[in-house]
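Researcher: I'm preparing a figure for a lab meeting and need a structural model of a single chain. I don't have an experimental structure, so a prediction will have to do for now. The sequence is pasted below. Please return the structure as C-alpha cells so I can convert it later.
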Amino acid sequence: MIVALQNNPALWQAQLPQLAPSGNKYTRGYALIMGGYPLTGASRLAARAAARMGAGLVSIAVPEIALPIYAASLLSIMALPFQTLEDCDALMQDIRITAMLIGAGIKPCMDAKAQTLAMLAKHQPTVLDAGALVAFSDRPKSLWDAIHSPCVLTPHEGEFAQLFGAIPHIDERLIRVCEAAKTSNAIVVLKGAETLIAAPNGHIIISSHAPPNLATAGSGDVLGGMIVGLLAQGMPAFEAASAAVWLHGAAAHLFGAGLLAEDLPDLLPQAMQDVS
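Model: Understood. Here is the structure written out cell by cell.
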C-alpha cells in the first residue's frame, strides 16, 4: 500500500539533529565523501553541504594525483589521498565514520563499482549518486544485493532510467519510484521539479517546494552532501532525505535569481534556523 504525503517540516522536524552541550566533533558525526578526478567540484560542493548541515567532521578521499587541487581549496574539510583500491578501502575502515557518500564527480567505471561495494560493505548509512549509480547500469541487481544498511539513492530521471527503466509518462512517476525503492531496499530520491522520496515500505513524500532556480549544475551534488550530513548525525534515512530536499528548496528560495550551486551551502544555516 502506497502512503503519499506532501513534504513539510512537520514530517521530520522532530528528527533533526540537536547540538549537545557536552558534544565534540565526533559526537556530531563524521562524514566521508569519495572525491572525483578530474571532476573535483562536485565532491567539494557535497562536502561543504555536509558540514553546513552540522556534521562535526567531513573528509574527502581523493586520488593522490588530485590532492593539490583539493588541499588548496579546502580548509576545515580534510583531503585524504589514496593511490590504490586497497588504500581507499583502508580509509573507510576508520571506526569514527558514521556516514558515507560516493558518486559526485565519480566516473562510472569498474573502480567506482569496487569503491561503492566496499563502502556498502561497511554497513554505515550511505548515499549513492551519479557515477556510483550509473556504474551498475549493466547489472543493477549486483548493487541491490549489496545494500544491507540505510542507503539513499539520488538519481535524476536519466540515471533512474538506466537502473530501473524509463518512466514513459509523468503519471507513472509515483508508482515507479515506489517500486524502485522496494526493489533496491533503499530510499530513492528521484530529483526533478517535483522530487519524490520513496521508502521500501511504500511510504512516499512528494516535494514541490523547490523553485526553478535550483535547475543549475551542481545543485544535486549539494543535495547529496546535505543528506549525508544528516545521516552522519544519526537522522533516519527517510527523514534525512525528506528534510534535505525541503531545506535545499528553502535555501534556493532565500537566494532568488542568479543562484549557483556554490551559493547553496552558505544559505543552509538560515534555512535550518527558519525551520527550527
